[in-house]
Each structure stands twice: as C-alpha cells, then as structure tokens.
Amino acid sequence: MGKNNTKILITALVMVVTAAMMIEEATSIPICGVNTNDLKKCSPAVTGNNPPPPTPQCCKVAKAANLECLCPYFTRSGLDPAKIKALGTNCGITKNPSCLPW
Fold first, then answer.
1. CATH assignment of 29-91?
2. Model confidence pLDDT, tens digit, residues 9-56
3. 92, 36, 96: which is closest to 59 by C-alpha?
C-alpha cells in the first residue's frame, strides 16, 4: 500500500470513529434528570454476581438523577433491587425511592 493510500485509510478510519462517537452522543435521551448514556456509568455496579462498588462518576449520575422518576425503569429492568440499594448506600444517597425495598 502506498503512502497516499495509507493516509486515505487513516483519514477514513478517523472519520468513521468520529461519526460513531457523534451518533452515540446523539442517541442519549434525557430521562429523570440524567442522560441515558450517563446511566450506563452505573451499569457495572448493579449487574453481575459480584458487582464492584460504584465509581465516583456513577455516584455523580446517581445523585443527579430523580430516583423516584426512575422507579418504573428499575422495576422493568430486571435488576436486583439489593444491588440498586447498595449503589445508593455506597454513593451516600439518603433519599430512597418508594419502589425499592429499603
């Protein structure tokens, strides 16, 4: 492959990656005070058999979210309520949503 073809390939790859990032950002939907892409930051802390503690970024999202508003999503998600409770406790959230057994 010649130098020009390599430059074209790299430029095309950068454009595709940039477009993918823009599409990902564009598909974020605001819900209950936070964007859906931001909610993904908490996914590791509430999934799996032994989830890790929430990250500071997750806690920031959790504290900004209207948890009461998220109740219908919690109940439909199939997530273990105990894991959601642990996230709230680990993030220092004191106002508990009514839909979770606290």
1. 1.10.110.10
2. 454 444 444 444 555 555 788 999 999 899 999 999 999 899 999 999
3. 92
Q: Rounded distance, CA 72 to CA 59, Å?
A: 20
d(CA 69, CA 98): 10
Parse the chain into domains and list their residue ranges. Answer: 29-91
Q: Which of 56, 62, 55 minimizes the C-alpha distance to 39?
A: 62
- Specify the amino acid at residue 39: L
Share of residues in the chain with pLDDT > 90 (%): 38
98 contact partners, CB below 8 Å, separation of at least 6:
68, 71
* 11, containing H or E segment: helix 3-26
Determine the average pLDDT of the residues in 53-71: 93
Separation between Cα atoms, residue 90 and residue 42, nearest integer Å: 12
